[in-house]
Recover the amino acids of this structure.
């Protein structure tokens, strides 16, 4: 038999005068232990973390089922009650297993403020990194501080002394040369695929980052109060979005949200799960409830 274990700790320690009897009932419902930390604070932890709890009523029919969201709401009340003494509370969890199963290990973190609850997991982070390594698409959690340097290197590789820059077709043709003379072109092409450089001359308007085909405006509509233009590649049928929030809004790669089915900007989405080589994304519009489920 395989045993799975999840344990959690909460930080920082909480001033004990902020914790009410109702708070303690919530903690009991989620098997959260309370331990003194000095004279004035208490430290919270769960040796066997559970994602749901029950507040017992006077009779079984009066029991109230609780979700993690209810617990996080309770922590937000404590932060609000502290009048600035606490600005955040975090929960860090580990997942382990009695056997060395590939699905038996990991971790997650929840960061709670008075008006927001943010969630991340090691599995989602690793799926994002795997996707970036395989496709070159850089997600929102990636440290992209090196991008300006890559752009400088790209410009140096594709611009001659007279200031002329290679167009897409020429660079792609040079990169197809597998001999040593094509080494720099292949390097420039790889950088281009990573940074989605705008340094290359656009031949007939915006260009697809996946195949360098031309993008055509497919439709326009409004979502969540934002006017959007949807573009489609004429070669590979990749979709792109321009959100018309400002005059020079960029055209960005689009993916479908598994929660609501709408097209969303890939750089602001998270990988919800991955099957074979296909990543399934979820957007901020839906990810809070789905990722906590």
């Amino acid at each position: 038999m395989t045993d799975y274990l999840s344990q959690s700790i909460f930080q920082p320690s909480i001033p004990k005068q902020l914790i009410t009897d109702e708070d303690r009932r919530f903690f009991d419902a989620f098997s959260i232990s309370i331990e003194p930390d000095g004279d004035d604070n208490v430290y919270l932890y769960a040796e066997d973390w559970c994602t749901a709890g029950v507040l017992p009523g006077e009779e079984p029919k009066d029991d109230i089922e609780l979700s993690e969201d209810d617990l996080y709401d309770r922590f937000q009340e404590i932060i609000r009650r502290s009048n600035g003494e606490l600005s955040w509370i975090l929960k860090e969890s580990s997942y382990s297993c009695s056997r060395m199963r590939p699905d038996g290990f990991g971790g997650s973190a929840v960061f709670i403020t008075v008006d927001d609850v943010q969630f991340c997991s090691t599995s989602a982070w690793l799926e994002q990194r795997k996707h970036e390594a395989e496709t070159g698409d850089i997600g929102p959690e990636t440290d992209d501080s090196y991008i300006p340097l890559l752009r400088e290197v790209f410009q140096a590789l594709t611009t001659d002394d007279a200031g002329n820059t290679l167009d897409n077709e020429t660079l792609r043709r040079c990169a197809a040369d597998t001999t040593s003379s094509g080494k720099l072109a292949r390097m420039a092409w790889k950088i281009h695929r990573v940074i989605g450089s705008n340094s290359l001359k656009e031949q007939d308007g915006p260009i697809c980052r996946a195949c360098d085909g031309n993008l055509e405006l497919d439709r326009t509509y409004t979502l969540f109060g934002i006017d959007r233009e949807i573009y489609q590649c004429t070669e590979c049928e990749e979709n792109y979005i321009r959100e018309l929030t400002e005059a020079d809004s960029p055209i960005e790669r689009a993916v479908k949200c598994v929660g609501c089915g709408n097209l969303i900007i890939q750089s602001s989405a998270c990988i919800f799960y991955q099957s074979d080589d296909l990543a399934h994304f979820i957007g901020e519009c839906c990810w809070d409830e789905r990722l906590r489920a």
The first helix runs from residue 21 to 29.
